[in-house]
Model the fold of this input.
Amino acid sequence: MGTWHVGPFDNDTAWDLSDTLDEASPDARPGIVRDALVRVIDTTGDLDADISEEAVAAAALVAAQCPGGEPIDPDYGPKQPLADLTPLRATALRALDRVVTEPSELLELWDEPPDGPWRATITRLQHTLTPQAPT
Done:
């Protein structure tokens, strides 16, 4: 099926990440999320769409645990509980920044128009992941 919408889990790659997380031991799950984020950050040159889709899904899992984060739809995301992922906020932000920086295949596929729904999804995740100053 591939990709069917702009949400973080609206593609086969993100579903595969969910399956991997569900099959992993509880202790291994945060490392899997971290690895998905770091893989994107460490990529120089062309960034493959599949790696980016996985990182966007991982960033959404982190954001879901942050204040104001949107919950992950249980029909699309992992079914098994995840430990506290909020220590990965900065890593998730860096991964999203890389996804929207050329050369990025996912950016090329989705960023027309530049203010379209895919970019709005990424921007919402970035906003949620950015620590807010105390008021």
Summary: The first helix runs from residue 12 to 23. The two ends are 45 Å apart (CA to CA).
